[in-house]
Amino acid sequence: MKPRLVLAVTAVGSLAAISASAQTTSVFATRVRDTTFANGMRAVIARTPPVPARPPRAFIGLYLRYGVFAAARPELAHLVEHVTANNAPLTVNYTMPPNVTAYGSNAMTRADFMSFWRTVDPALLPVMIPNRANRVAGVRDDSAIFVREVGRVAAETERRIARIATNGPSASDVLPNAFFGPRIEPSALLDSIRSFDRATVFAQIERNVRPDNAVLVIAGDVDIDATLAEVVKHLPTYRSRGKTPSVRGPSFVPYRGPVVVHDARVTGARVGIGFEAPSRIGDDYLAYLILDQFLIGGRQPDSDTAQVTRSLDSPLGRRLVAALGAQGIGDGVSYETDPPPLSIASASYLAAYFDMPRAMPSDSIAAITNREVTSALTTDLTDAAIADAKRQLIAFHERWLLSPTLLALADHLAAFVLIDNQPARINRLASEINAVRHDRVRRLARWYQGRGHVRLAIVLPRERAP
Fold it and tell me: Are residues 335 and 438 in the same domain?
């Protein structure tokens, strides 16, 4: 049967200046093509503005919606990603040339989806399209690869165990307990990973790795029409296997106060502040990102987009330094590997982590931290501060989304397909941020003064017996 193209939508992205003063135009894709095939699979192709003095490159990635399976069973989701990525597709109708140069490549488990991507010379797209996309038709079941990948996933958990054994837990290790309740200890998680059998893993591959659950994202220095012609050779040929069932992810537990951990390897105090995310679909989400930028600043033009720094010279940072002697402040995010906030539909939070040189009672730390957060969200939240946070947030996205691998751009494109069904939103992002009303930002700031919307984790030295 001849493949049938059921829908093709093209949007040309362009933006007016986001503000009269900045006169900035944030066009992340000069053209976006969104195509859905009869089997439910989608392809989004985006041409990016040229970057001087950079060789042409194209990102290609297969994104698979997990529902919120990854959030519910992260250890199983991680193993599914490894096994899917490292087994060959059942259909190999291409010849991979030797010594392919990749500007970046990885398989990733995210909060709501997994991805298999590579950034290459655009001339390789005719080969890379089936190399990425064919997995939705099934992957081989190689027992040796399964054993190897169990070992690799287990080794990542072992490294985390070794880090905690050497340095004690960080606040980022503990803060999830404040939102989701007691988590599986790393040692038990390791046992769980090693106990999974092939049947369990391949049942999840069959459940999630299928055309109706997938979007192929191609972005960069690409010819839209020529690339779509290559896509059409493959994506419509994959047999539909029905609608992928969703899995309900974990929700936040009722807040019962700060989670406090004592550990003999810790000196001073390690503190994490978590800010609950409003609904990703709601109008408050961009206000939430603006508040995060306002509170802990950073992400300045001189910071590498892979190693983003946040700043103590920020409204919350300055208050924490004065009140608690805070040293360093960060968000715990790896901007090259962690999912962008806009790609997370399941329950989530943004965080601020800092250290204190000297410990004090946990009740005192909590009371002072909550007081300074409230003061920053009221006294310091001026119109000028909100406008400055918007400007900083837009400027950061302008650098981040067009960083060399194009991963951040592709993650956002995939999210705007899988969550919003609007991939062309990529070119509205800056104008949407700029359009957020200041009273909406203040309303969200007041919401954070309600119980449980801001949660704390505190790590202190182990108390000695008298």
Answer: yes
